[in-house]
TrEMBL record:
SUPFAM superfamilies recorded: Nudix
Keyword annotations: Hydrolase
Name of the protein this chain belongs to: NUDIX domain-containing protein
Cell inner membrane keyword on record: no
Domain Nudix hydrolase positions: 21-150
Organism placement in taxonomy: Bacteria, Bacillati, Bacillota, Bacilli, Bacillales
Taxonomy, superkingdom: Bacteria
Organism this protein belongs to: Psychrobacillus faecigallinarum
UniProt keyword Hydrolase, yes or no: yes
Length: 158
């Protein structure tokens, strides 16, 4: 387990071991690539980040990952693979599940909610980006991206 403080000052515990925490994930973060480019979105308040959000009461955490990605980017993802979970010890602590996903389809003309839509960046462009969301710059994201590289040969990068 990796523990650190995020840029908002909250303690965060990150684990690459499933079900490590007593708090069940109610939030998701989705990492997907297509043609060697990361799928990101530009949130008008937070900046550039991977798509994600909160689970609705009627859906599974995997369904939330698919829905949130579609709502924020117009991209349909499939073949979700669990990668990690982390707990943010906020005033109301919460757990977020991190998934790797494959890009299945890119919709055009659909409505985008909460963000400016899909943004596709290479690893180099992501590393050079100056408008990243706060959580894209913390120790947890560094560890998550490192773990993705370990498993990248399994990635379905079309």
């Amino acid at each position: 387990m990796i523990s650190f403080y995020d840029l908002n000052g909250y303690k965060v515990d990150l684990s690459f071991e499933k079900d490590r925490f007593t708090i069940k994930p109610q939030h998701v973060l989705v990492l997907a690539k297509k043609e060697h480019k990361w799928l990101l979105t530009n949130h008008p308040k937070r900046g550039i980040e991977f798509p994600g959000g909160k689970k609705e009461v009627y859906e599974t955490i995997e369904e939330a990952a698919v829905r949130e990605t579609l709502e924020e980017t117009n991209v349909v993802v499939s073949n979700l693979r669990w990668l990690a979970e982390y707990v943010v010890h906020d005033v109301s602590p919460f757990c977020k599940a991190v998934y790797i996903a494959e890009v299945e389809d890119i919709h055009t003309g659909s409505t985008i909610y909460e963000t400016d839509g899909a943004l596709w960046l290479t690893q180099e462009e992501l590393e050079a980006c100056t408008n990243l969301s706060f959580h894209m710059m913390d120790k947890g994201m560094i560890a998550i991206l490192k773990e993705v590289r370990v498993h990248e040969e399994k990635w379905n990068d079309r």
